[in-house]
């Protein structure tokens, strides 16, 4: 790409214009709303510099921190155009500044790697199994009553399936009168058991039993600290409260499925929707437990939300 010489908006400072001579920026910048002169600016005097070899013990000049490969670094270049003060040499006008060369490294919140989706899925399946066991103990009587109320339409449906009587115009018999109330009761108890299982442990340690077995932990984005009860509740409610909508044509299950797979498409922190609402990340803990007396803590950041 060849850019004709002229005055252009400086890519490094959009509030100024500089002169591009076809090979590099020359002269001092002018305000972007000022009328540029015709032709190139007058050359600026080059400040005298002492050769490095003349200074005893001087170190050779190192590239500037953050300099990108392929572009000239800041300051005057030997044999090239001289840039204005405070304005490094850069790409021609209209060219984007180079980004991180190669593949951008994965973030490490609080110095820990992000947990993989597989580890999070295994931990969630363990937690679901434990919550189901709690429901067997606490909720089984209501579930049994619910199945009894639904027995009449279910038996008629299975009779038609077994006999091939699919063209029967008669509607299925209705469920029992207590079916609706029992369904709401079962869903309320199931949601409350899930809340009691997950929220207190996440508030105190950032881990459920499943997360501890897999070795992952949820942390606030801004600090290596406990989540606190308020943040843990917000995180759980995005995934747990849709359980109450299971009776609405499976709407609750659909919302929970979308939340569960959302971490697959989030970059770079792999946050599910419940993580984004609570501003948390899930990290993989080291296999060897660190000595807390020798592990530095981030005291400058605020503690987790405790509201």
Automatic annotation (TrEMBL):
PANTHER family from the UniProt entry: MEMBRANE PROTEIN, PROLINE-RICH ANTIGEN HOMOLOG-RELATED
Domain RDD, residue spans: 115-278
Protein name: RDD family protein
Subcellular location: Cell membrane
Membrane-spanning residues: 121-144, 179-197, 239-258
InterPro entries given in the database record: DUF2510, Pra-immunoreactive, RDD
Pfam families cross-referenced by the UniProt entry: DUF2510 (PF10708), RDD (PF06271)
Organism field: Micromonospora eburnea
Entry's Gene Ontology cellular component terms: plasma membrane
Region of interest called Disordered, as start-end residue ranges on this chain: 1-102, 285-307
Membrane topology (UniProt): Multi-pass membrane protein
Keyword Transmembrane helix listed: yes
Biased composition (Pro residues): 37-48, 88-102
Bias type Low complexity, positions: 49-76
Primary residence: membrane
